[in-house]
Design brief:
5 helices
Length: about 140
């Protein structure tokens, strides 16, 4: 039986956000972090997905071969939730420091850039889900 590994989703997701800081994590930590973000995106996508998304965390894979569309949407969801966590981390840092210190000790536009990329990625993720649901709609079998 053909399967899709989580790493296939992670590779596509990392191409979306291109954040090198995740590469500093060891492989197990990186996969754990990305898997949690993937599951968050999967929750958003499952209601309209035309196939069930059975997975096995022991083998780090889906128990089916995902199509290109499903793979891409899961990668976008993973990237979206990764960027949300990064934006939250920057918000927390900004709130802990006075504005003058924040601007002095961090790149001046980092938070704005992360939020801009987050908005673009999240919009693309949501749009992909909507387009997918229109293309594969079957009201009789809609998951509620």
């Amino acid at each position: 039986m053909e399967t899709t590994t989580f790493s296939e989703v992670f590779e596509r997701a990392m191409f979306q956000f291109r954040d090198r800081s995740i590469l500093h994590l060891n492989i197990e930590d990186r996969e754990r972090v990305l898997m949690n973000h993937m599951f968050a995106g999967m929750n958003d996508f499952q209601r309209v997905c035309k196939v069930d998304l059975p997975y096995n965390t022991a083998t780090m894979s889906f128990e089916i071969k995902l199509g290109h569309e499903e793979l891409e949407i899961l990668a976008l969801g993973t990237a979206t939730y990764w960027l949300k966590s990064r934006a939250h981390d920057e918000d927390v840092l900004h709130n802990r420091l006075y504005t003058k210190d924040y601007n002095f000790f961090s790149p001046a536009n980092l938070l704005r850039e992360i939020n801009s990329l987050l908005k673009i990625t999240e919009d693309k993720f949501r749009k992909s889900i909507v387009e997918y649901s229109y293309m594969h709609s079957d009201l009789a079998n809609l998951k509620v």
